[in-house]
Design brief:
single chain, about 300 residues, Elongation Factor Tu (Ef-tu), domain 3, Rossmann fold, 6-stranded mixed β-sheet, 9 helices, 16 strands, disordered N terminus
């Protein structure tokens, strides 16, 4: 890795005292946190994340994906689940509290004009980058097909699903549950779960994605690209689906991090490049990578 590559992220990450604007609790220890962090909001891109200090008594920060931003009003929004001491501490934050925030961090998703049919797949706490990307795609030129957002969870979703009014004839008629926010934006979404939630696809979200892709003709498939974030097994399944249908895919990895700014290399993963295998840092070289570079295509 060259010195230029090592320093490429410098000057793009900002440290600021972020004031808690609101925090909303959802079932199973899920929270949506809104922070006033103007610098982070101004520079964040879909797929980037913030490294947040959860409380004065816990010096180690936690990496949290950004779900939404409003650059004009200077806020960012984060969805997280209380796994471990740090996030349990964060869940106690109240409006007016101040949290140290480092961000935005990481290389986000790249939208390609020659692949205007975007399939966004989010699993669990991998949902936030998909919401961020979907909101960004609202600004696409007129005539561009809206993205399709598929989300999976085995616990209640961190929003109240409602029946969609945006019809998708290529999906099973009984799969009708959608995210209200996306509906209001005119972006179709569908939900998947094996927990038996009403209106959801009864299976893995990647199987629902495969069902949709199988309904497309070759000309339409040539316009599709997959964007995904979630647990590693889900991302691996997304890569296999992409390989099966011959479409490109980008995946945002979830990894434990210490510094989150490229110094410790504790989040390094093996990536397959044109020059052979290499170790890349998820925090600043990612978290978004080409799916085939993380999960090489399988023979046959």
């Amino acid at each position: 890795m060259s010195a230029v590559e090592t320093r490429a992220h410098r000057g793009t990450i900002f440290l600021e005292d972020a004031r808690v604007i609101a925090q909303q609790a959802w079932p199973d220890g899920q929270y949506v946190l809104r922070l006033s962090a103007p610098k982070c909001a101004r520079h964040a891109r879909p797929g980037s994340f913030a490294h947040v200090r959860c409380g004065d008594e816990l010096p180690m920060r936690r990496p949290l994906s950004i779900q939404r931003v409003d650059a004009a009003q200077g806020w960012i929004e984060i969805l997280y689940k209380t796994v471990g001491k740090g996030l349990a501490l964060l869940s106690a934050a109240k409006p007016g509290d101040v949290l140290s925030c480092l961000g935005p961090i990481g290389q986000g998703f790249t939208v390609h004009a020659d692949r205007p049919r975007r399939l966004l797949i989010g699993g669990g706490v991998g949902i936030p980058p998909m919401i961020f990307l979907a909101e960004t795609l609202r600004d696409e030129p007129a005539g561009t097909p809206p993205p399709l957002v598929l989300m999976g969870s085995e616990i209640p979703f961190p929003f109240r699903p409602r029946p969609s009014t945006l019809m998708l004839p290529d999906l099973p008629a009984q799969v009708i549950a959608a995210m209200p926010l996306l509906e209001d934006w005119g972006i179709p979404s569908r939900l998947a779960s094996k927990a038996g939630f009403a209106g959801c696809y009864a299976g893995f979200v990647t199987d629902l994605a495969a069902h949709w892709l199988a309904s497309l003709d070759a000309e339409t498939l040539a316009q599709v690209e997959i964007y995904a974030c979630g647990p590693t097994p889900m991302l691996q399944a997304c890569a296999r689906v992409a390989q099966r249908f011959g479409v490109p895919a980008q995946v945002s990895l979830e990894e434990y991090m210490a510094c989150a700014v490229g110094g410790c290399a504790g989040c390094a993963v093996r990536v397959h490049t044109a020059d052979g295998p290499a170790m890349k840092r998820v925090c600043v070289d990612g978290p978004v990578f080409e799916a085939s570079s993380i999960f090489p295509p399988q023979a046959g």
